[in-house]
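MODEL INPUT / OUTPUT PAIR
PAIR INDEX: 1
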Amino acid sequence: MAQPTLIIMAAGIGNRYGGLKQIDPIGPGGETLLDYSSFDAIRAGFGKIVFIIRKDFESRFRDRIGKNVEKNIDTQYVFQEFDRGMPQGFVSPPERTKPWGTGHALLVCKDAVTTPFAAINADDYYGQTSYVSLKEYLEQARDTESAYDYCAIGYELQNTLSDYGHVTRGVCEITQDYYLTRIRELKKIQRFDNEVKYETENGEWHGLDPKSVTSMNMWGFTLSFFDELESRFAAFLEKNGKEMKAEFLVPEIVGNLIKEKKAAVKIIPTEEKWFGLTYGEDKPRVQEHMRKLLDEGVYPEKLWK
């Protein structure tokens, strides 16, 4: 049985954070959230880690993160460049500065992945048991003639918010047996005292159930997802290729596959507390969370011995 692969999307620019949060130290020995994610994946039994990064900070990334991870697991680096993975004949608009989104990020990994795989964000902490659940599911995942066999880790919305501004979340609707029926990518979710609300494009605020099941972009896929990404990206570019900010996003792709009855997506609930680096002000709280986990023995003081 092949060990699954973990893809970590680490090519973001970090505009709201104010710097490269992928390599910002969080732990007592200068560890980053990426270090803890990699450590959790190795402990859970993943067989390979693929980092999606930008070419312009490859050397810094390898020196800061890669040198430790490479000693413990098969590691590969993939660059999310504008024209990589593009359909023949398409060229990105020269004035576009924003990457094409998480769907494109995964697509450029196609040649680096040969097993069922998980995909996560670089700036999020997902919790040790979430990796175990994902790895165990992916080892048994099998597509059928009727549907692809995918999964996602589900968090409570109230446990995923920042105290310092709005966030984007994939709010899930699920069946009684925990299969995803719909995912709404809401871009401006914020806590107001004891309420959670989101803002629509026309400026109206609507309430959300704080216990809503939420995807934090911790996905599990079989290799069939790459074929879907390839064909759908071509269609996306045909429609949106001249837009400066249009993004090809994994939650929207998954949502469309469910709507078309091409994929069954199992939501695996977790009691883990998610936290992440969205704003610079998030850092002290994240450091506090990590200190608590170290005190509880979840991680050793020196992560990479």
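PAIR INDEX: 2
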Amino acid sequence: MRFLDHRPSAGSCATPDGALAEGRWVKWIGGASNQDLTAIEDLAGLYSAAGVHCLDLAADPAVVAAARRGVRWARERTQRSWREPWLMVSLSDGSDPHFRKAWFDPELCPAACPRPCERVCPALAIPPRHATPPGSGVLEAACYGCGRCLSLCPAGLIEERQVLLEGESVAPLLRQLRPDAIELHTRPGRQHAFRTRLAQVSAAGVPLQRLAVSCGLDDDDGARIGVEPLAAELWQRFAALRAAGFRPLWQLDGRPMSGDIGAGTANAAVQLLQRISPLAPPGPLTLAGGTNAHSLPLIEAAARSRSRAAGVAFGGSARALLQPLLLEAQGRQRRLLDCPDLLPEALALAEGLVRPWLERRRPAELRQQG
């Protein structure tokens, strides 16, 4: 079966590097700790078909295999002009909200608890009381660490558990996964930890198209630093990347994992882009953290940020769009990709989010950023 009426836009046919240079690059974020294999396969397939240039995933063999199945599905059903997206895996140089899971003992839950955690979970990782699995009140594979449940538990039972990769595991895992790109999540003050993780990546010997650096304004103590100190941190990372021979890509994390909340979250990443643009080191600047359909109009209205906005990464907003259809397919015990009656709507929704970026008019002042 082919989507006979599916016409990829010009931006979806560009190489990922070409899209970065033109300000039309789009990445789908599966989640650095998301292991919901069925949803990952469905979303990777649909957003690949919609024309994204990169899929960002947990550094997990089963997750990567699921995403590759989704890409294969998209390859078989789109036109020849479609280009396969990069496969990127995420690592961290220390504790990070993207690499955590929520956990609580359901046996300790008060019988009369209204379960606000269940209502607020965007991944549906906290099932109803009667469906709670033994051992944990959270479906570990589905939880991607947004943290919205942590402060809402009336009994204070929910804790976070970090999922970090040991240093000696990095090189053999990367050789197994063979990604096209890597994203390193870092925080201000972690120069030594960043260089250590970077050395582990280098030791793998895997050729990479880009090494992305994801960083925001919050340090390990939760304190918010200024834009100038953040720029200094990025320049330090740039020196380390250049010494190791990697091509940088900067991902500005405005409000992590919040793009599905509403229009207000899109402002954080755009404002950070505006303020950091004159100070940032060479390399494309992309937006993440709170990004959604409102991000591009905000960028186009902010003259100072247009010249450095190389692209965007969609995570929570991308999943929220398709969540009802994912649940419908789940109820049928099938992949969404195998539900022909649901696919036209699913693809239209995915394209509706992605296409404005793919068809974005290239800013005249967008310079080649390396």
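PAIR 2 NOTE: The longest helix spans residues 227-244.
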